[in-house]
């Protein structure tokens, strides 16, 4: 595996059974790589296979065929316990729905991710540092319902990076945001790559964000076209 690649994908196929018909191929032999320490955009229309692929790369699902290598390790054959530990300690996730815990304030939502990752030292300092990175240090005591949609997504990003993952997966993180907030999130991702040294993979169908990253992968009908 090339050391400049944090992820390498070899001929990934994902088939979903269809009653009374041939299986539906969501991914059709996808091969690609994610460069280490860069912001990669995974582009494609709805139904192109973006979410299916990111689920494979984030160890949330297994392909029907093919292999995924993460940081030099083949992960598709690992037992679920090992995959779960990898997700909690080495990966971060931001989804279209922010899924903040409604009874916890912004600070507590971010700290909760450190507890899940088993981090015990310097939690207060790290949580405040991440909230500063996303520009919400003055809103850390606010409850989710007291924050705007864009602010909630920034809390979700702080939560996703607080345990210092090797890679952040962001699946359509701007889909429910207005255009200004979407551009703020994209700019924040670029800053995090520079300041935290993190690798980011973001899926989007928003044409205004296609050039947000330094690396682009385009999917169409379950295949890489660019």
Structure description:
By secondary structure, the protein is α/β, with parallel strands linked by helices. The protein has a single domain, classed as Rossmann fold (3-Layer(aba) Sandwich). It is built from 6 helices and 10 strands, in the order E-E-E-H-E-E-H-E-H-H-H-E-H-E-E-E. It has helices at residues 50-57, 80-90, 106-117, 123-133, 149-161, 179-196; strands spanning 5-16, 24-35, 39-43, 65-70, 73-74, 91-94, 167-171, 199-204, 215-220, 223-224. It has a 6-stranded mixed β-sheet, with helices on both faces. Strand 7, helix 6 (179-196) and strand 8 form a beta-alpha-beta unit. The chain is globular. The mean pLDDT is 90.
Overall number of domains:
1
Number of helices: 6
Order of helices and strands: EEEHEEHEHHHEHEEE
Helix content: 25-40%
Arithmetic mean pLDDT? 90
CATH superfamily: P-loop containing nucleotide triphosphate hydrolases
Largest sheet: 6 strands, mixed
Return the CATH topology: Rossmann fold
Biggest sheet: strands side by side, in what order? 6-7-8-3-9-10
Q: What gross morphology would you assign?
A: globular
Class by helix and strand content? alpha/beta
Intertermini distance:
21 Å
Overall CATH architecture? 3-Layer(aba) Sandwich
DSSP strand (E) fraction?
25-35%
Radius of gyration using CA atoms only: 17 Å
Oligomer class: single chain
CATH class: Alpha Beta
Low-confidence stretches: none
Sum this structure up briefly.
With 226 residues, the chain is of the alpha/beta class.
């Amino acid at each position: 595996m090339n050391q400049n690649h944090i992820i390498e994908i070899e001929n990934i196929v994902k088939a979903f059974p269809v009653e009374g018909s041939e299986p539906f191929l969501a991914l059709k032999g996808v091969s690609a790589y994610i460069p280490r320490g860069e912001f990669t955009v995974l582009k494609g229309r709805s139904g192109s296979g973006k979410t299916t692929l990111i689920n494979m790369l984030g160890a949330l699902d297994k392909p029907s065929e093919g292999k995924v290598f993460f940081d030099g390790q083949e992960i598709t054959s690992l037992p679920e316990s090992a995959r779960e530990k990898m997700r909690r300690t080495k990966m971060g996730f931001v989804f279209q729905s922010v899924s903040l815990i409604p009874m916890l304030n912004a600070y507590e939502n971010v700290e909760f991710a450190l507890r899940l990752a088993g981090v015990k030292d310097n939690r207060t300092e790290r949580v405040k540092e991440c909230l500063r990175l996303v520009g919400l240090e003055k809103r850390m005591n606010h409850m989710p319902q007291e924050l705007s949609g864009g602010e909630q997504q920034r809390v979700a990003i702080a939560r996703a990076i607080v345990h210092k993952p090797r890679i952040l997966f962001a699946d359509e993180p701007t889909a429910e945001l207005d255009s200004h907030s979407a551009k703020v999130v994209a700019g924040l991702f670029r800053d995090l790559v520079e300041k935290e040294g993190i690798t980011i993979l973001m899926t989007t169908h928003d044409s205004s964000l296609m050039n947000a990253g330094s690396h682009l992968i385009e999917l169409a009908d379950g295949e890489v076209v660019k």
